[in-house]
Amino acid sequence: MGTDSLGSFWAVLLLPLVFGVPTEEPTFGESAASHLSKGCRRCCDPEEPLSSADPVQGPASPHFPYVLPEVRPYINITILKGDKGDRGPPGTPGKPGKDGPRGDRGSQGVKGNKGQAGNPGSSCQAHYSAFSVGRKTALHSSEDFLPLLFDRVFVNTDGHFDMTTGRFTAPLRGLYFFSLNVHSWNYKETYVHIVHNEQAAVILYAQPSERSIMQSQSVMLPLEPGDHVWVRLFKRERENAIYSDDVDTYITFSGHLIKAED
Prior knowledge:
The protein is an alpha+beta fold and 262 residues long. It has helices at 3-19, 28-37, 77-80; strands at 130-135, 139-140, 145-147, 152-156, 161-162, 167-169, 174-184, 190-196, 199-206, 214-223, 228-234, 241-243, 251-260.
């Protein structure tokens, strides 16, 4: 083969490299369809997995998805508000609370006007009567009845108790209270009566004992004006006596008006 023919051969081989091989360019629609058919789909397309026959594509080009805005409804309450309802029934009262602290004392008020004079009172005068006497001398009964006389006065309002007779005379109709205190004599009996007029009202008694002790008796009596109350000793089978001395007062007799009925 000659040199000319060898040069023509190389020219034929290099011609496509110099001028390029003509090719057919795909259209935009074909390119998009080819791209969608190979893995890309729209947001509204159903999610179906790629079949095993589809070729695995490389990582898609980065894109930014469209985010739907959040819708928050707004309701105008003033439009939906109804009329005011009726007042309901009162509920059950609750338990009372604890007392609060005491408040401060208020200021002194204004002095009021002088009141009217009252009606005149009753013309009856309040009456009273009381006495209390004592005896410092011991006494032995020698007869059936022996009046007990006293030698010391503690109280004798208006002189209603007669020291010479040992008797109290009621000045008013009413209820009176009397009390008698004596000291018994050792180894001797003690029999003493509180007498209303001539009738024994109550008795004071103490049995014989080796020790002498104080004894007392009391009574309330309704009296009429002029009634007498006094004390007497009386003798039975044994000797009757009451004890006292010149130093101390062991024997006392007292009485007073509780309520007048006049």
